[in-house]
Structure formats: structure tokens, C-alpha cells
Amino acid sequence: MLKTHLVLMDELKSYASPAKKIERMVKNGELTRIVRGLYETDPHTPGYLLAASIYGPSYLSFEFALAHHGLIPEAVHQFTSASFDKKRAKQFETPFGVFSYRDVPEAAFPYGVLPMVENGYSYRVATPEKALCDELYKLSPCANRVDLEQLLFEDLRIERQAFLELDLAEMEQLAALYQTKNHKLLQSLIRKETRHATGT
Q: What is the pLDDT of residues 52-71, one digit of tens each?
């Protein structure tokens, strides 16, 4: 269970020195310090359940969400999250893993995010369509649609069939919120694939 420093100080107020008691609890393993002012009582808690509490507002996205949804084959060793209006990327190395956060456009931030509850923890994760749009936002601009297809299907190693099974209409709407070259190329690719599927 997550506990803030203030909550612990209140829970331990009967002790002569609640702060010293917290230090002892950390030392004997009753508490694990995550970042300044935030603790976890269970050292085996999966890191993705903690990401939003470490830095926010945020939701799990980018490589973590792409792997979570089975779109990319590589194992992801960081908990990657999207934030907005933070101006600079942040990274935290903790006993529960490495957590990284980077901005996406404020206009896109609220959409395409799934609220999840697991073992009493609430967290949010991007849909596969949103995670892909977020990933394209942090990557260098592609020169053209052919380059984008190489990025998606060779560099990121997304299976073309898996891409086509996504909600392309939703992804096209999400892409419009980013206003970057990569997203304009993604919209163009989606329109091409849609025409091919409908034979028009």
C-alpha cells in the first residue's frame, strides 16, 4: 500500500519521534522508500501500479504501453509515462524500477487512456492507438510515408497485421491532436490502408 510521509507522520503521531520511527521501518523493511515523501508497504508491488503516484498527472504510455498491448516484441525495462506541461523529461530510479516521464501535447493528453484498478491500486494506461501516437511524438520526424512505414514495421517491429487490427478511425482522430509531421504521415497511412481495405 502506498503511504505518503504526511500520512505516516499522522499514523505514527503517538511515537515520541514519528520521523525516527519511519527511518526504523525503512531500515527493517516494513517500508520501502520510493521517492522523497512516498513509501510502499509491499516491496513486491509491480512498478506500473506506482507510476502515476510518483509523478503526475501522468499515464503509462510509449514503449511500456506498446509492449503491454503486445504491439512491440521487446521487453521494456522502464515504466514510461506521458505527462503534459512539465517542460522537461523526468526520470526516477527507485527500488521498484526506473520510471520516466515526458510531455505530450496538452490537447492530446486526456484522450485514449484506460482507467485500471488492480489490487486496490488505480492507474491509467494508454490504449494501443494512443501509445503509438505518443511514441511518434517523441521520435524524429520521418521524411515521408515510406519512412514512416519503415519506422513502424521495421524499426519498432510492429506487425503490419497487428497495426491493421487497431481502431484506425480512433487513431486517425487522435493523431490530429498532435500537429506534427509524423502524425500527418500516420493519418495519410491510415487513409491509404482504409482505402485498400474497402477497395476504393
A: 999 999 999 999 999 999 99
